[in-house]
Amino acid sequence: MSLAAAQPRPLPLPEGGLLRILIVSDAWMPQVNGVVRTLSTVAGLLRARGDVVEVIGPDRFPTLPLPSYPDIRLALLPGRRLARLIEDFAPDALHIATEGPLGWTARRLCRARGWPFTTSFHTRFPDYVQARTGLPTALSWAVLRRFHNASAATMAATASLERELRERGFARVVRWSRGVDLSLFHPGPRDAFAHLPRPIFLYAGRVAVEKNLEAFLSLDLPGSKVVVGDGPQRAELAARFPSVHFAGWRMGEALAAAYRAADVFVFPSRTDTFGLVLLEAMACGTPVAAFPVPGPIDVLAGSGAAALDGDLRAACLRALALPREAARRHAERFSWAASADIFRSHLVAIPRRAG
Fold first, then answer.
1. N or C, where is the chain less crowded by C-beta within 10 Å?
2. Long-range CB pairs of 351-355, under 8 A, 24+ apart, other chains included
3. What would the pLDDT profile of 133-178 be if each residue is shown by its tens digit?
4. Is 195 part of any domain?
5. Considering its fold, how many domains does the chain have in total?
6. 227 contacts 244 by C-beta, under 8 angstroms
7. Tens of pLDDT along 229-262?
8. What pTM was estimated for this model as a whole?
């Protein structure tokens, strides 16, 4: 049976019930994004339970900057070194998180060895490629389908994404939801932007074309607009929207303080597959305004603290009246511990090596 036709099966645990789990990802530290946050959090939780988890990212290789986004570095010709790193780690299970140079190389190595592996669908690259180049999405979707259909399971974060991938011909799609750190992101003092007029409408994340930030920054809203984050569009958008406060990257407690200070968290993206920032903002008690598209529809449904509208201005103004207590209650439904359990349950075993 070919790898493309292989079916997921329960993973026979090594003696003692612990696993050696290898994750290969083109998105890794020092990048700041939802993929890195997801992988680092889940890996940390699995390690705390006793599993040995290794993440191989571009930081271990010579790299080149991604065209149009130099902060993202891609591994250059990683074949031999990656093969050696994989062999030295001797994983019980291998997960390929991204479709970049490391992901494609790991896929090739696994297929050459007859090793089953899992993948995850984090990023709508066809939409991103189209936004940057104008190229139609059909070719990109065909490439991604080929990449993922060689895996034993492709993990998707939401019901909408799972359904879309199946409709596009992706095989063996399974659900892997996300969580939020409720001890870091919680209600509290709201004075982070005390010098700015209220109400405060906040965006947090990468400042890049695929995030559709202009849809937010161009709105006629009362009070202040704040952008926490950075990226290749920051200089352009700061010049075009001088009244917007660009705060740069904030991490940890400083990020939580920014969420808490906002009256509304605005999520203008139409292409995100989940949106961790939605849960982080809501965990801090901040209602959300977003477009009614996959991602927000899945994460925010039933929250009582989100306004979804094709008119983003109307959503922002309506969100001002939503209860902050409801936002926190909704975020409490999401657990990183459960996310780690689900991820582990989808892994498949690499056959034992003789000797």
1. C
2. 351/114, 351/115, 353/90
3. 777 888 889 999 999 999 999 999 999 999 999 999 999 999 999 9
4. no
5. 2
6. yes
7. 999 999 999 999 999 999 999 999 999 999 999 9
8. 0.89
